[in-house]
Fold this sequence. Notes:
Layout: E1 13-22, E2 25-35, E3 40-44, H1 51-58, E4 66-73, E5 76-79, H2 85-94, E6 96-99, H3 103-106, H4 113-123, H5 129-142, H6 159-171, E7 177-181, H7 189-206, E8 209-213, H8 217-223, E9 226-231, E10 234-240, H9 241-246, H10 251-257
Parallel strand pairs: 3-8, 3-9, 6-7, 7-8
Antiparallel strand pairs: 1-2, 1-4, 4-5, 9-10
Helix pairs in contact: 4-5, 4-6, 5-6, 6-7
Bound molecules: adenosine-5'-diphosphate and magnesium ion.
Amino acid sequence: MTGNVPDKSLPLLKVQNLSKFYGKNMGCxxxxxxxxxxxxxxxxxxxxxxxxxxxxxxxxxxxxxxGSVFFNSLYGFVDLxxxxxxxxxxxxxxxxxxxxxxxxxxLRMNISAGGxxxxxxxxxxxxxxxxxxxxxxxxxxxxxxxxxxxxxxxxTFSGGMQQRLQIAANLVxxxxxxxxxxxxxxxxxxxxxxxxxxxxxxxxxxxLSMILVTHDLAVARMLSHRLYVMKxxxxxxxxxxxxxxxxxxxxxxQLLVSSVLKP
Length: 263
Ligand code: ADP
Ligand code: MG
């Protein structure tokens, strides 16, 4: 294992022939795409179309049935579906962020906001308490949470703040990619708007790459450069976000855009 710079001639992520079956049930099937550094991809589709399955496979949270997820890491072009547990854990703790729809799945509710941010730094080997606290304070500021809330439990935070804390906790190790599964679902529209604003700033400031899973086409349009439309586990259409949403080619996407298909 060497600490080389990632190979710039390769994409950041390459998903190849990826399939996941739950027994006989298809989660997603034969998914192929690439993600460049600094690019934001939106994955849309109605409920049950396989969006979360795809994201969990990419995040190494579930075993895939078939295919590869190559990640252009500091350790080479690693297939996350094949690499050993230790490397996968190392990559998912440091270079790959994963934000869930429900904060309870992504945060530790019984430790402070600062502790949630500091935990990933400590997992990464950082031991200096005052430095960890300083970085946690900086990150609270970046996601627009008042720094005097650093010692408070996430349970005392609003839904929007919890999501912003989850983002801070994931970005503190400077990952190259962040995976998001319905990060704005269940939030009021104004709270959603604030979260999207924070995300847009971070994406542009940090040149973050992101895969955003959402059933909300408006959210997808605001954040993603390109869109992939999923139906029954497969990608049925892809292209630039504006192009797909203004001029959908596939009948399924047309239904989705005209809101005939309810999520
Ligand atoms: P989405 O996120 O688009 O709503 P999912 O990825 O959750 O879709 O689900 C895709 C398909 O996989 C659905 O048919 C769903 O019922 C099935 N599925 C998801 N998770 C499981 C599981 N743990 N066990 C069995 N089937 C599952
Ligand atoms: Mg889902």
